[in-house]
Write a structure and sequence with these properties.
There is one protein chain. This protein is α/β, with parallel strands linked by helices and 408 residues long. The chain folds into three domains: 60 residues, Up-down Bundle (Four Helix Bundle (Hemerythrin (Met), subunit A)), CATH 1.20.120.140; 194 residues, P-loop containing nucleotide triphosphate hydrolases (Rossmann fold); 138 residues, Signal recognition particle, SRP54 subunit, M-domain (434 Repressor (Amino-terminal Domain)). Helix content is 57%, strand content 11%. It has 19 helices and eight strands. It has an eight-stranded mixed β-sheet with strand order 3-2-4-1-5-6-7-8, sandwiched between helices. The longest helix has 19 residues. The two termini are 27 Å apart. The chain binds guanosine-5'-diphosphate. The site of guanosine-5'-diphosphate has 17 residues, from helix 4.
């Protein structure tokens, strides 16, 4: 089996496994058998393949769902914590866990009803009280009840607001101390913005936050506050909420998140931008060049010019890039300039001071740093656009199909 086929077989086997709703013994064995077959056909030593199988099974054994209790906390109002608790439980239920929900938010009127309603809909056991006002007591009773019922993921929904901030944090500390959760999750609204750092830090000082979930990523907010929350709590973002429904919940994926943060949107957004920015008569030629994997400095220059025509643009470096690439990239001399770019490799600091860069900088009356910034920008865009290589250029009206392709 040639390497490409081997890669394909392994990817297919893993894909099949990740499509399964529940990864049980059979699904895992099917996947391992498929990989084993592919490896043996590729002449991988039998002993190595057998060891790999044994090791994977051992790892799986050691990572079997242990009983866990987790605590979700947020601050201050309507961040989506209760909704997130159910989404989190529902997500794990689909993966074969046996989750349960405890409503320890005794401050917000209606919190228990909301949790009860959602939990009932998802057929997830829940615990709470209309009369008991002590959140610690409810949390402890709920966790004990579900431990006895052999639930392996117990989620405690705690208050997200209070009369006073200090009281809220003290309550969290007490709930945490009494239930000793394996994981405390900070739930934050993506639109919280700059306030995220202080809030997350205040949380971290009271309880030991271990993960962050960002809600309402379906809205307009870019979610930049999540970075602050991550920095303040030193914990990763694990999921994002993308809507009000139970299944609008995704494992956090850094790439689309960063694209959104940088204002790049998704690929369909990109295609929309092409329509918006590039004059109609230039669109077919541009798409043709891009589909040939031909993103040159001249294209970058022309597109920045198009953007400029549209009005004020954001970052100043675009301007630098614009007049720079004009100087670097005289029409008709693309090949020569491309060769120059190939010689520049900013990932190698030795070449950063290369006389070639100095020459370009001198020749255009610019600083070396500016040349490097422009090259970085070019490389970044070239990498993005390289994904278009080999794509069929859409005929009129097929543009939306192309957007779908790029999203896939
Ligand atoms: P809590 O007070 O923090 O427990 O917040 P809730 O769970 O009650 O949510 C407040 C509101 O936000 C409700 O209307 C939810 O339906 C909504 N919500 C929660 N998560 C999301 C989300 O990811 N996207 C959207 N659009 N709405 C959400």
């Amino acid at each position: 089996m040639v390497l490409a086929q081997l890669g394909g077989s392994i990817s297919r086997a893993i894909q099949q496994m990740s499509n399964a709703t529940i990864i049980d013994e059979k699904v895992l064995n099917d996947c391992l058998n498929e990989i084993t077959r592919a490896l043996l056909q590729s002449d991988v030593q039998f002993k190595l393949v057998r060891d790999m199988q044994t090791n994977i099974k051992k790892i799986r054994q050691s990572r079997r769902p242990r009983r866990r209790s987790q605590q979700a906390q947020n601050y201050p109002a309507g961040s989506g914590k209760t909704t997130t608790c159910t989404k989190y439980a529902y997500y794990h239920q689909k993966k074969g866990w046996k989750p349960a929900l405890v409503c320890a938010d005794t401050f917000r009127a209606g919190a228990f009803d909301q949790l009860k309603q959602n939990a009932t809909k998802a057929k997830i056991p829940f615990y709470g009280s209309y009369t008991e006002s002590d959140p610690v007591r409810i949390a402890v009773e709920g966790v004990e009840t579900f431990k006895k019922e052999n639930c392996d993921l117990i989620i405690v929904d705690t208050s997200g607001r209070h009369k006073q901030e200090a009281a809220l944090f003290e309550e969290m500390r007490q709930v945490s101390e009494a239930t000793k959760p394996d994981l405390v999750i900070f739930v934050m609204d993506s639109s919280i913005g700059q306030a995220a750092f202080d809030q997350a830090q205040a949380f971290k000082q009271s309880v030991s936050v271990g993960a962050v979930i960002v809600t309402k990523m379906d809205g307009h907010a870019k979610g930049g506050g999540a970075l602050s929350a991550v920095a303040a709590t030193k914990s990763p973002v694990i999921f994002i909420g993308t809507g009000e429904h139970m299944d609008e919940f995704e494992v956090f994926d850094v790439k689309p998140f960063v694209s959104r943060l940088l204002g790049m949107g998704d690929w369909s957004g990109f295609m929309d931008k092409i329509h918006e920015v590039v004059p109609m008569d230039q669109q077919p030629e541009l798409l043709q060049k891009l589909s040939e994997g031909n993103f040159t400095l001249r294209i970058m220059y022309e597109q920045f010019q198009n953007i400029l025509k549209m009005g004020p643009i954001g970052p100043g470096y675009y301007l630098t890039t614009l007049d720079f690439s004009a100087e670097l990239m005289p029409k008709g001399r693309e090949k020569e300039s491309q060769a120059k770019i190939k010689q520049l490799d900013s990932s190698n600091p030795k070449l950063m001071n290369d006389s070639r860069i100095m020459r370009i900088a001198r020749g255009s009356g610019r600083q070396v740093r500016e040349v490097m910034e422009m090259m970085e920008e070019y490389k970044r865009l070239a990498k993005i656009w390289s994904k278009m290589k080999g794509l069929k250029i859409p005929k009129k009206g097929e543009m939306s199909a192309l957007s779908r392709n790029m999203n896939a």
